[in-house]
Design a protein that fits this description.
Blueprint lengths: L4 H32 L4 H8 L3 H6 L4
């Protein structure tokens, strides 16, 4: 394994970015499921913490 402060910094940033992307994917899937079940958009936004713009950007609404 590489031992370098710069490497460690980039590794941590990459892990953090990956986790954020995973959380976004999960929230988007939850939003899709809720909307498919007939939940109101306002409720979906409140529960998932996403914005309507994010849902549009990802083709959910």
């Amino acid at each position: 394994m590489i031992e370098s402060p710069v490497y460690d910094m980039f590794l941590e940033e990459g892990i953090e970015k990956g986790m954020q992307q995973g959380e976004l994917r999960k929230a988007l899937q939850t939003a899709r499921n809720m909307l498919a079940e007939g939940d109101a958009l306002a409720k979906v936004l409140r529960i998932t913490g996403l914005t309507e713009e994010q849902l549009r950007e990802h083709g959910v609404v």
